[in-house]
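Students often ask why inverse folding is considered easier than folding. One informal answer: many sequences map to the same fold, so there is more than one right answer. In these notes we will look at a single instance of the problem. The structure comes first.
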């Protein structure tokens, strides 16, 4: 199986933009997360543009890369997916940012919803592993309470459930159950 040009280009750009960034555990290179999201999207049978958006989903939110640059480099379809999944950091308060994100996601394409599900699923998998490793102490790394995080993950699922392939739906439900048990 060969990697398509747009996926390769997105991987290279994401690697460049996330260089030096670490996940909340302080050890894992950040790029592992978008790669994990892209793998989940590929497993779900998504097209190359959606996989590329999975690789790029945090670039506008967490790096200096502007949406207009992404649109110029990757086109309007990938830019729409990334934009739909990106929080507006100008909005104060965790809950208010999530509410605004959900409003945009409701109007977004099926593919954008898939990218957000892959992002959330990858985060749940990593969070469950960190909670198990730290006996729950990892919650201190977040600005949100465990209940807020559970509510957010359930909200992503509820918003996208109708567009999810059966296998992705099951994997998300299992990850949410595991996380709830550990939380």
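Output (designed amino acids):
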């Amino acid at each position: 199986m060969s990697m398509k040009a747009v996926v390769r280009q997105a991987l290279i750009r994401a690697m460049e933009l996330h260089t030096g960034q670490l996940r909340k555990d302080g050890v894992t290179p950040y790029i592992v997360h978008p790669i994990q999201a892209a793998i989940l999207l590929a497993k779900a049978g998504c097209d190359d543009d959606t996989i590329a958006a999975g690789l790029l989903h945090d670039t506008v939110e967490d790096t200096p890369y502007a949406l207009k640059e992404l649109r110029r480099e990757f086109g309007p379809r990938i830019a729409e997916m990334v934009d739909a999944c990106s929080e507006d950091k100008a909005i104060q308060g965790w809950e208010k940012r999530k509410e605004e994100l959900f409003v945009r996601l409701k109007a977004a394409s099926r593919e954008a919803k898939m990218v957000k599900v892959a992002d959330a699923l990858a985060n749940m998998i990593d969070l469950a592993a960190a909670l198990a490793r730290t006996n729950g102490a990892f919650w201190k790394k977040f600005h949100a309470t465990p209940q807020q995080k559970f509510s957010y993950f359930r909200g992503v699922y509820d918003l996208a459930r109708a567009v999810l392939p059966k296998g992705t739906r099951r994997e998300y439900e299992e990850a949410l159950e595991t996380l709830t048990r550990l939380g």
